[in-house]
Amino acid sequence: MSTDATETRPTDASPDRPGAINAVPVRHPGRWIAIAVIVILAAMLLHLLLSNKAFDWRFVFQAMNQQPVINGFIKGTLLVTVLSMIIGVGGGVVLAVMRLSDNPILAGVSWVFTWFFRSIPRYILLFTMGTLGILFQQGIAFGVPFDWKIIDWLGLSGDWRFYTLDANQIFTGIVAGVIGLGLSEAAYMAEIARAGIMSVDPGQAEAAEALGMSSGKVMRRVVLPQAMRVIVPPTGNETIAMLKDTSLLLAVPVIGELFYQLQSIGSTYYKTFPIAVAATLYYLAATSVLMVGQYFLERHFGRGFGTKAPRAARPAGAGGA
Amino acid sequence: MPLVHAVNVTKSFHHNEVLKGIDLDVDAGQVVCLLGPSGSGKTTFLRCINQLETIDGGRIWVDDELMGYADRDGKLYRLKNKEIAAQRREIGMVFQRFNLFPHMTALENIVEAPTQVKRESKKTARERAMKLLDRVGLADRCNAYPAQLSGGQQQRVAIARALAMQPKLMLFDEPTSALDPELVGEVLAVMRELALDGMTMIVVTHEMSFAREVADTVVFMDGGVVVEAGPPKDVIGNPQHSRTRAFLSRLRSEHEHP
User: Fold this and answer.
1) N or C: which end of chain B has fewer CB within 10 A?
2) CATH architecture of structural domain B4-256
3) Interchain CB contacts (distance < 8 Å): A and B
4) Does domain A57-131+171-301 match CATH 1.10.3720.10?
5) What is the distance of C-alpha A189 from the center of its chain?
């Protein structure tokens, strides 16, 4: 066979053996029109941004540079996003494992939790979190449940409480906001994590069990790392959505929050539009950073999948092959 | 007592009785091949041995240990998951679809169970893993992910992964059925060597030549019962039962007229 190939190379054209293809490509006049339209629109936008006095860029950047605004961005936006996503992802994975367990009580509790927290709009949930202190006027105590009843039956006095928290301090400000957003997020993350776990081939868990791994190890070492590949992209979405939902903290209310602080500057100087621009710039920057983070997470959990050889996978000393 | 001692094993899936009283004894160092048409229950029986399926009746002992239950004064108590996991450590299993962990390299796949389950040091586990990879002829592919390996290479890594736990018994569930024909030989060669080294093996297979050459005992199953069992020269060479003969001739004609 190889001798044939050297005698007549496939590129050697002859009347009965067509050679290399040198065809006229399809023309796309529509593309050129589209490019022209887009260039004109972009120029108009740029002109608008630079020349329209309403933007007042100096004021925008001055407002962005105010210490309360920066604090609001770092604490109210970034910190709350991180903390609520930690509660959300951790809680969501636990809820998903509960939902998929053989134990009907655990599965039921998980279902009810998800149903409840997915049903409440976040704004209303955050408003409610800010008012929950009214339920616990004696504070939140850690100790023996129903201790006053038991003490009453035994004819004793005193209490069996070791530590008491002031509920009005918990259900206020950023703490209330983080709890509310975290619980709400856990309900959504539970569904995402459940889909991820179910996407893993049952043969994987079987192989791990056959090696003598405990069910916890099977989940942590084999199933979840593979589920992460499916879980990470929608979780990136959720994180970006959370970043923006921190602006709802106003409902608790939390005043150390980005948009509230910007608005108060805006109303002091009667400039509302530049304030909206400043907030937009902050959210654009934060979302861009998150998208970069998501890229690296996806690359980490995608290892071993797809055709591209990860750098570490090249066998040592296989230079010539 | 033989290494594997199974008596009157029964198993149903939703009122469909798949195993109808299987008896099987396997001595240490023996190779037993389970043959039979699909749906005969041979894979289910294999999975019952290491408790991937729970049995409905009968008993299975591996190395004098009752699988899945504790027998206290004639009353059976179901073992906890942890105890069942401990029993499985002694039994290696190789699957039809390899089931390597795709997010780990070949080496990591092999090191995983010894370090996570037996708490061996990373160093000793890696050293043994490299020896095992060398034994299956894949030492140069130790850093490859399963997706970068051919089916035959994946199955050889899967065998090495099972051997890393230093099992007393190896179970093979149709280890070559998912492979392209030209890759079957390399996997069978590894299994042949394993048998020569004295590993106790139970192999569900359709590879007649492997069964004839390597097996000490061939067990022919059909419809959830053992139809015929004995040395390969009897069961394959001179089958007594009509169902065995029909199965073997069907297999042969498939080979001659594919």
Assistant:
1) C
2) 3-Layer(aba) Sandwich (3.40)
3) 97
4) yes
5) 9
